[in-house]
Amino acid sequence: MIHSILIIGQSNMAGRGSLSEAGPLDTKNGRLKVLRNGRWQTMYRPVNPDRPFSGTCLAESFASVYADEHLGVDVGVIPCADGGTSLDQWQEGGLLFDNAVNCAKLAQRTSHLVAILWHQGEGDCAEDLYPQYLEKITAIMSALKRELNAQNIPLIVGGLGDFLKDRIESPQLANYPHINEALIKFAQTTPHTAFASAQGLLSNPDNLHFNHKALQEFGLRYYESFKTIEDKNRIFDEKSKMDDAIRTEMELL
To answer: Which residues contact 28 (CB under 8 A, 6 or more apart)?
Structure first.
């Protein structure tokens, strides 16, 4: 059995951690996998090769700790993040949206989808874009879950890094707190959704991308947020089974 994780968003989800700073990738004796051409391969880097300079990503540590806490299953990552992209490019019917849906549906033929990880927002920090973020991401994720029949699948959205304010080449990135506010509100108002904070995480020298160490920590934060939803789902399932048992017993009286 393979439990799969769809990763979507822009470059900080694809991952720009330095490969030279990373130690050997622990695949848990081949239990960690990545989707390539519709088939599961033992995980290797870069997990999400959207650009020639792709690096390590947060999905590595997320998948690793998931495998540690879910023995008896393999864990596969479905890489569909693409650097430099905006919400408008991720809207329903667009190329990125359709690619994510197609890859996830293909993966669902040989795996059980257990999580969707999203990190995006740098491309929507401009003053004419960030006020629409909440409305747009709500529509995108609603459509995505509908297409994948994944209404109850945990969705984790990650915050933007504080270091963006120091990227003088891109002054619009100073608006990142507005994106974080929208992401937090989205997580609070959307079922089966949680927010992972990026507070205190450090960047590469570009003040745009999380460094390798930060990405490993960020993946763990994503997992902790995921667990809050997983636990709620488990409690709900257990309560539903108990209610069903009580109803059956009452019918037999």
So the answer is: 64, 67, 68, 75
